[in-house]
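Anyone up for a design puzzle?
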């Protein structure tokens, strides 16, 4: 069968044209949806890609991800399965740019499409996450929230340090854990300093001021764990043994003359503060009056409260062990 040369040339032209069409990338479509346009710092932004493209990246507009600076090493972040999540660390207004790209396998043809929107990130953090005295001898002691505005720091009067019992000062540095570096802290109307020592014998009036200007007041109370200042039984003074790990617990060990009746004794003791109460179970103990059975270890429970604030307390435990000589 003879095929005309004209027909063969026609086939070649069509094949060549088809090959050129296969090398040409299709036009992508950049489109995205977002739930809102105002966020707090560290709040997650969710973007859904609703267009069509082989490759999608998003420039979030903050440091290292500014679309306008893409020629200066700034770069977009890859969208995975149509969903992109991101949170901003710093407040500001940012231009979010979506870049959708299609290309041929050989990379000879690349086509792009972009879309964008603006987001505003605000920093209105006025919440204390954690608060501590970071250098109580060698340890960091954390305060606890009592309610929405009051914090309580419980401190021992003394602490076991190596081979001695070191006295804990009420002049201490403080450390604030806050979810924003832009939030400012004031103590008694002066800007907080991490290197300054504060007198914890007094209530500290704390104020947090956010980047947006919102202010929130707090108070820090400090209560020492209760303990016996002196403890005497049958004329013998007790010897204190402290724990390195639990500041709310210590022991008193005593040796008394052999043959002593330990079953019903009223110890004499003194306390450090009128706001300290001591109990066996739920019975308040009175020096020289209330009796206990010392034939076995006796557990005393201390409740120390802040003056005129019975809701602000520190509880501790003392175990007294008496051994006949």
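Challenge accepted. My sequence:
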């Amino acid at each position: 069968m003879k095929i005309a040369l004209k027909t063969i040339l026609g086939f070649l032209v069509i094949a060549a044209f088809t090959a050129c069409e296969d090398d040409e990338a299709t036009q992508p479509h950049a489109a995205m949806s977002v739930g809102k346009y105002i966020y707090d710092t560290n709040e997650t932004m969710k973007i859904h890609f609703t267009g069509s493209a082989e490759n999608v990246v998003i420039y979030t507009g903050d440091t290292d991800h500014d679309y306008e600076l893409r020629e200066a090493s700034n770069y977009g972040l890859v969208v995975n399965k149509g969903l992109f999540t991101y949170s901003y660390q710093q407040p500001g207004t940012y231009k979010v740019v979506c870049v959708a790209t299609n290309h041929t396998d050989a990379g000879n043809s690349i086509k792009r499409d972009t879309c964008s929107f603006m987001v505003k990130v605000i920093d209105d953090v006025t919440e204390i996450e954690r608060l501590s005295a970071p250098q109580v001898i060698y340890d960091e002691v954390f305060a606890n929230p009592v309610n929405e505005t009051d914090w309580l720091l419980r401190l021992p009067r003394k602490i076991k340090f190596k081979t001695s019992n070191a006295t804990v000062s009420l002049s201490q540095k403080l450390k604030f854990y806050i979810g924003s570096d832009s939030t400012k802290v004031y103590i008694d109307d002066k800007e907080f300093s991490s290197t300054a020592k504060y007198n914890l014998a007094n209530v500290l009036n704390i104020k947090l001021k956010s980047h947006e200007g919102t202010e929130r007041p707090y108070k820090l109370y400090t209560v020492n764990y209760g303990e016996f200042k002196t403890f005497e039984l049958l004329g013998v003074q007790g010897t204190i043994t402290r724990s390195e790990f639990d500041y709310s617990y210590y022991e008193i060990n005593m040796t008394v003359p052999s043959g002593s009746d330990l079953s019903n004794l009223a110890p004499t003791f003194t306390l450090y503060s009128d706001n300290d109460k001591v109990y066996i179970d739920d019975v308040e103990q009175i020096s020289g009056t209330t009796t206990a059975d010392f034939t076995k270890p006796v557990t005393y429970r201390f409740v120390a409260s802040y003056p005129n604030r019975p809701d602000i307390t520190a509880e501790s435990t003392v175990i007294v062990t008496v051994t006949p000589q």
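A detail worth pointing out: The mean pLDDT is 91.
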